[in-house]
Structures are given as C-alpha cells and as structure tokens.
Amino acid sequence: MRLNPSFTLADVAEIRRVIEMNPWATIMSAGDDGLVASHYAVVLDETRDDLTIVGHVGRPDDLIHGIAERELLVVFQGPHGYVSPGWYGDVQAVPTWNYTAVHLAGVPELLSDEENLGVLDQLVARFESRMPEPKLMWERPNEPAFIQRLAAGTVGFRLTPTRVIAKRKLSQNKPVETIETVIGALESEGPYSNPSLAAEMRRAQDARTGAQR
C-alpha cells in the first residue's frame, strides 16, 4: 500500500475512523462502456490494521466493474454541509461547503465463497448489533440453505489500496474564533443545522488548538 509520504500513523488512524463511521461507499471503475458507479456498505478488514477494506457487490456488478481485473476507486463521504458567508462576520466572503472524504484505489482480489460468507456475516453483525434485539445472519428462523442462496448472488472482494487520498475541508484556513462561530451555527437550529458536521469540525478544532499549546 502506497500512502502519501506526508501521512503518519495518526493519519492512518484518522482515515480508518472516517471509514468506520461512514461505511456507505461509492464504488467506481472505468468499464468497457465508460465510467460506472455502484453503492454498497464497505468496511475495514477486521483481520488487518491498515486501510484494507472488504465488501461485496451483487451480480452482475462484479462483471460491470471487472472485479479483480481492473482498478476500483472506493469513496467514503464523511460529514458535509453548507457554510453561510454570514457566519464569518462582517467580512468579504462567499458560501462554501465543508466536508471530509477518503478515496481508496486499487485492484481488488476476489474472496472465496467461505470468505464472502464471513464478510457478509461481519456486515450483518456490524449494523444489526446496535438493535435492541439483534437478528444475526445465522440465527433462526434463517436456515443455512437460505443464507447460501442469498450469498450466491453476491461477489466478495478485498481491496488493499495502492493509492490513498484523504480530504478534509473544515474551515481550517479561518481564525480560531471564526471556526468557533461556524461550529456554533451548525449546532444551532436553522435551515443548515448540521450537528454531525459540527462534531467533525470540533474534533479537528480541538486537535488544532491542542497542537498549538
């Protein structure tokens, strides 16, 4: 896996956090008929501590994307939202959009049927565990034949990225006081209230001010 030379272990941990918190990904590739995109839940490979991801696509998306034959670009979109110029005070300003995003690119490997079942089980457990009464994949009334039949309609993959791009635009070019005002506006009620983006900005702001101490 080739990372931007400026990335540190802390950066890798932060990228993993963004992926972990935002598993609904856009999968893109350049097919024979042009660019194609699909949308699936994709998660970190729980057996690794790097940026390797695992997931699945439904048939025939495996053929459309040429899984294991050509490069995929997998995009994870974190919190994002509109920022009004009015939040900057009485200064020259224009609207903007704050966001976080991670791009992972590489040629994936196909998973075996057994590995694919393991990833499907991981995905179900990851999301269903938050329910008050989780209904896991292998629990009754699901029968093994039912699970196997559904799994046969999917193709699992593992992607260890050869290119990684992590982007974060959170008003970091503005003074601390201005960032605090934007966070407050996003936390308040209004047409552009966005607590999740405010929390992401707060995290970055605390890291920034802590590093300056």
Write up this protein.
The protein is an alpha+beta fold and 213 residues long. Helices cover 34% and strands 29% of the residues. The chain contains six helices and nine strands. The strands form two sheets. It has a five-stranded antiparallel beta sheet with strand order 2-1-5-6-9. Strand 3 (43-44) and strand 4 form a beta hairpin. Helix 5 runs antiparallel to helix 6 (195-212). The longest helix has 18 residues, at 195-212. The chain is elongated, with a radius of gyration of 20 Å. The chain starts with 8 loop residues before the first helix and ends with a helix. The mean pLDDT is 93.
Which descriptor suits the 3D outline? elongated
The structure class reads alpha+beta
Average pLDDT taken over every residue:
93
Give the distance, in angstroms, between the N- and C-terminal Cα atoms: 34 Å
Identify low-pLDDT runs: none
Helix and strand sequence:
HEEEEHEEEHHEEHH
Side-by-side strand order of the widest sheet: 2-1-5-6-9
The tally of strands reads 9
Q: Biggest β-sheet: count, sense, barrel? A: 5 strands, antiparallel
Please compute the radius of gyration using only Cα atoms.
20 Å
Beta-strand share of residues: 25-35%
Binned, the helix content reads 25-40%
